[in-house]
UniProtKB/TrEMBL annotation:
PANTHER family: MSF1/PX19 RELATED. Keywords: Signal. One of its GO terms (cellular component) is mitochondrial intermembrane space. GO terms for molecular function: phosphatidic acid transfer activity. Residues 1-175 form the PRELI/MSF1 domain. GO terms for biological process: phospholipid transport. The gene is PRELID2. This is PRELI domain containing 2. It comes from Equus caballus (Horse). The keyword Signal applies. Residues 1-21 form the signal peptide. It holds the Pfam family PRELI.
Length: 177
C-alpha cells in the first residue's frame, strides 16, 4: 500500500466564485486526461443545508504501454466515482473518490477538504490524502502502486494550478506563490 498527501492555499475572493470554478475544473483543456464528468446524484439536506453530489469521471488510461502488456490493464479509460458534501454555511467541502475500474485488483481512495483558511478568509485551504493498494499483479504490485500514487499526487497539483487559473480568469484572483 502506498500513501500520499498534498496541501495548498488558493486565493479566494468570494466563496461562490471558488465553488463555481471547482465545478468547471474538469473536464478542462488544461488536463486532457479527464474525458468527461457527469453528475449522477445531487440532493440538499433541508435541515443542514449540506449539498451532496455524486459524479462519475471517465479518465484516459495513463498506465505506461510497457505495463499494459498485462491484459487487465489494457483498457482505454478508467472510471472514478467522486462524492462531495458542500456545507455553504461553514464554507467547506469534503470530497471522497475511488476507482470503479479494476475493483477486484486495486483499491484507490482519495479524500479532499476545501475550507476557508482560518488565518486569512481570502484564501482557501486544500488538503488531499490518498492511498492505493494493488493485488493480483505479483511483482508489479509495488511498481503500479508507486506509479499511481505519483500520478495522483501530480494530478492534485495540476488541479490546484487549474483552479488558480480559473479563479484568475473569472475574478482576477492573484496566483499563489
Amino acid at each position: 500500500m502506498v500513501l500520499w498527501s498534498v496541501a495548498a492555499l488558493m486565493p479566494l475572493l468570494l466563496w461562490k466564485d471558488f465553488l463555481e470554478c471547482l465545478h468547471k475544473e474538469y473536464p478542462n483543456p488544461m488536463d486532457k486526461n479527464v474525458i468527461s464528468v457527469k453528475i449522477v446524484e445531487e440532493k440538499r439536506d433541508v435541515s443542514t443545508g449540506i449539498i451532496y453530489r455524486k459524479r462519475i469521471a471517465i479518465c484516459q488510461n495513463v498506465i505506461p504501454e510497457m505495463l499494459r502488456k498485462v491484459s487487465i490493464l489494457k483498457v482505454p479509460s478508467i472510471q472514478l466515482e467522486e462524492e462531495s458534501w458542500l456545507n455553504p454555511q461553514e464554507r467547506n467541502m469534503a470530497m471522497r473518490s475511488h476507482c470503479l475500474t479494476w475493483t477486484q485488483y486495486a483499491s484507490m481512495k482519495e479524500e479532499s477538504v476545501f475550507r476557508e483558511s482560518t488565518e486569512n478568509p481570502n484564501w482557501t485551504e486544500f488538503i488531499q490524502r490518498g492511498r492505493i493498494s494493488i493485488t493480483g499483479a505479483g511483482f508489479l504490485n509495488y511498481i503500479l502502486e508507486t506509479f499511481a500514487s505519483t500520478f495522483l499526487r501530480q494530478g492534485a497539483q495540476k488541479g490546484i494550478r487549474i483552479m488558480e487559473m480559473l479563479l484568475k480568469e473569472q475574478c482576477g484572483a492573484p496566483l499563489a506563490e
